[in-house]
Design goal:
- The chain is α/β, with parallel strands linked by helices.
- The protein is built from 13 helices and 16 strands.
- A hairpin with a 2-residue loop joins strand 15 and strand 16.
- The longest helix has 25 residues.
- It is globular and about 75 Å long.
Length: 480
């Protein structure tokens, strides 16, 4: 095409609107003209996929994350941080040197509550785990327990926001969104960031826990639900064939590319979402089809038992998803009504035995399955919550919220297992050795994935926003 013709074609393209194109395409001559114009456009006008795979800032230890979040907050001194003094001092007040440290519903004057479970030592490392988690306990040599995390709120939703997005408010992107923004996706046929909430309901923090915040919407977590239609609106409309839908999307894509130079990141994200949804129609059903798994695998995850079937199904799906290149999987243990949360303000024993009964076996199966398949080495598994619980009693047999010191654990993804880091005091109230905040937690996750917390930023309202804000400390001793 000579320069005069080229200028004329560009002028023609600029003058076209979607309405004009559709009208011209309605007859044969219009369709021929449209095809000619689109064929002659510059290759540079192609719209960039915001989910394209991107290299890390430095060599990574992990390629994917499975984050098991326990809604309502398990009690650390009843699970992974034994405090023998609790039973010796049960019914007594905390020593005066501790002051009056209350929770959301207690004022610090309540007596000490002992633990109803025994702790035993497991593995070559001899790390203690309570009888609540006999199956997870068999994997302590692959687990690093960090017993000194702290959050800044005693209320569920703000504390959840801090764990998920680094702030006490719901306006910032979640950790999964930041990870997919930084690294993109390893698969073109499935979402990069998948969320599986408790079927009974979402956590108190709601959908903001997996929101993209001010990032483009393509980085938001995609919900997977139980049942035959795990992703809503994925099936094509009645009477719509695959070839017809592909032709419709091709026409839409071509029209979009005419104005590609004027598109902002949000429009590019929406265009990418259309294309991803089309590919998912073919690939997502296979990814979530558990009939392809062996009977032994399904039994290991507890799919044959009522108590473990639901949670085991979600963890098995998580393994299948990371196996197929999904970058970040967020799974919630608990949500919705109080009866389906770890929020044991009363009846601690019944509550924790119910929730651990749902999850202990499936979590252990996930670790074993990932390890046998060679996936654990490159998959970072995290188990945690928004805070812990107080050593004192509430309602006589429960525990109130404690953000001052609690346990989360890590496995896989280059983690050095068989160790514990940090300590709480003799009653499990305060983190006393190596206290770590959520900025440190997030910096450590990013580091495992090869992302520099200071280089992962997004310009928002004139400010270079980061997940860790003004920075966190990487917990280097977690890694081998």
């Amino acid at each position: 095409m000579n320069s005069c013709t080229d200028r004329s074609a560009r002028k023609t393209l600029r003058g076209l609107t979607r309405r004009t194109i559709l009208c011209r395409a309605a007859n044969g001559f219009g369709a021929i003209a449209l095809q000619h114009l689109l064929a002659g456009r510059s290759a540079a006008a192609r719209i960039e996929n915001p989910l394209r795979s991107r290299p890390p800032h430095f060599e990574s230890r992990a390629d994917a994350v499975i984050f098991i979040f326990n809604v309502g907050a398990p009690s650390s001194m009843d699970t992974f941080d034994p405090k023998p003094l609790l039973n010796k001092r049960e019914g007594q007040p905390l020593p005066e040197s501790f002051g009056k440290v209350g929770g959301q519903f207690t004022d610090g004057t309540n007596p000490i509550l002992g633990t109803p479970w025994n702790f035993r030592r497991y593995g070559e490392s001899g790390l203690p785990v309570s009888d609540l988690f006999p199956n997870v306990a068999r994997h302590v040599d692959d687990i690093c327990f960090v017993r000194s995390f702290v959050t800044r709120s005693v209320v569920h939703a703000p504390a959840m926001y801090e764990v998920h997005n680094g702030r006490l408010f719901a306006t910032h992107p979640s950790i999964g969104s930041w990870v997919t923004y930084g690294l993109g996706s390893e698969t073109e046929n499935l979402p990069a960031y998948v969320v599986m909430p408790q079927p009974e309901g979402t956590p108190e923090g709601g959908t903001s826990c997996w929101s993209q915040g001010f990032l483009p919407s393509v980085y938001q977590g995609t919900l997977l639900r139980p049942g035959p239609n795990p992703i809503l609106h994925l099936r094509r409309p009645e009477g719509m064939s695959s070839s017809r839908q592909r032709a419709m999307l091709d026409l839409l894509q071509n029209m979009n590319e005419l104005d590609a130079g004027d598109f902002d990141s949000e429009m590019q994200a929406r265009i990418a979402a259309y294309e991803l949804a089309f590919r998912m129609q073919s690939h997502a059903p296979e990814a979530v089809d558990l009939s392809r798994e062996s009977d032994a695998t399904k039994a290991a995850y507890g799919l044959n038992e009522d108590r473990t079937r639901e949670f085991g199904t979600r963890l098995l799906l998580a393994r299948r998803l990371v196996e197929r290149g999904v970058r970040f999987v967020q799974i919630y243990s608990g949500g919705g009504p109080l009866s389906m949360q770890w929020d044991a303000h009363k009846h601690l024993k019944a509550n924790h035995e119910k929730m651990a009964g749902h999850s202990d076996r499936p979590v252990a199966a996930l670790l074993e399955d990932l390890k046998q398949r060679g996936l654990l080495q490159r998959t970072l598994v995290i188990w945690g919550a928004e805070f812990g619980r107080l050593p004192t009693s509430e309602s006589g047999n429960g525990r109130d919220h404690n953000p001052h010191g609690y346990t989360m654990w890590f496995a896989g993804g280059g983690v050095l297992g068989g160790q514990s880091i940090g300590e709480t005091d003799e009653f499990g109230l305060h983190a006393t050795e190596k206290p770590y905040g959520m900025r440190d937690f997030h910096a450590t996750i990013l580091h495992a994935l090869g992302l520099d917390q200071n280089r992962l930023w997004y310009l928002h309202n004139g400010r270079h926003e980061k997940l860790t804000d003004f920075g966190g400390k990487v917990i280097e001793s977690i890694f081998s």
